[in-house]
Amino acid sequence: MKSGNLSHRSFIALLLAAGAAVGLPACNKSSGPDQGAGSSSGKKILIGLSLDTLKEERWQRDRDTLVAEAEKLGAEVVAQSANSDDTRQMRDIESLITRGVDVLIIVPHNGDALTRAVKSANDADIPVISYDRLIMNADINYYLTFDNRKVGETQAAYAVERLPKDRPARIVRIYGAPTDNNAKLFKEGQDAVLNPLIKEGKIEVLHEDWALDWKPENAKKIMNAAITKAGTSIDAVIAGNDGTAGGAIQALIEEGVAGKVMVIGQDAELTACQRIVRGTQSMTIYKPIKDLAKRAARIAVDIAKKNPPTVTEHLSNGFKEVPTILEKVIAVDKDNLTQTVVADGFHKAEDLK
Ligand code: BGC
Hints:
- The chain has helices at residues 8-17, 57-72, 86-98, 115-123, 148-162, 181-199, 216-230, 242-254, 270-278, 289-304, 338-342, and strands at 46-51, 76-81, 103-106, 128-131, 142-146, 169-175, 203-210, 236-239, 262-264, 283-286, 314-316, 321-327, 330-333.
- The strands form three sheets. Strands 2-1-3-4-5-12-11 form a seven-stranded mixed sheet, sandwiched between helices. The protein has a four-stranded parallel sheet with strand order 7-6-8-9, sandwiched between helices. Strands 10-13 form a two-stranded antiparallel ribbon.
- The protein is built from eleven helices and 13 strands.
- Bound molecules: beta-D-glucopyranose (BGC).
């Protein structure tokens, strides 16, 4: 991190005073001679990053990688996290606009709630990149994400391959936050695989529900409700992510059946990979965050230099066909943990024991 006129501490104090700091590494704006990437106006490029949350492990990695890559390119990032609060996220974005950022990168808490904030960015001529989650009904410039439908398909296909075939398989489905467009895409991907089998009576969905704000405690409540309704004779739980899988596993632990039920998550969080090693979780999805975050930083810098990349893929957000980049995802279980997350430097082998 570069230090400009402001000391690191006074910069953080300044951010705190603005009521929006989320800790390192938001960076101070250099007031020295311009050594790095220059926006089209010749000033050092400033990227505003508005995150929904830092609750899940992945978002810290997203933020840190993006900031490091932007710095490598000579740009600076001001990062804020809204703590799953729409009003706060709108305020965060308005404050980044007022600060005069060249580009905004936004992970929306609620994809439907930021239309007005994006309109303010449009009015101020600030391009917007929707990161990981899609902002709906708004004039955004790019959408960078993983293949979210594929995530759901991969989760369901993994379960189907291992479910009993001599009787109807009994599964529980825990979806993510209903406010997150990704949660809908994960479900759509799962549906594509599961629905034909559900129709044929080969799979029985014992219970299904959405975990508000992706909270593990909400997932645990859903799992408790499933057990109350259908007992513990469950073949698989397909959870939206590793956080919610963890909530479900907690309920299974309390019933003494953890390890006997296949549990599927997403994100390859460290705790989830440890559960895979120990046998209480079966599978997760590894999303190479560093690829997505670095790409976002590079595209942000390119846009600020008025050199926006051409993208062939598009996804509709209800307002327009948004130029979209979809990164690949990888299924991970105990058989390939080493060849995937460890080999890629995502986790250290010794941390997985
Ligand atoms: C992301 C997941 C994440 C979840 C909760 C989703 O939009 O794609 O990786 O676990 O949000 O933060």
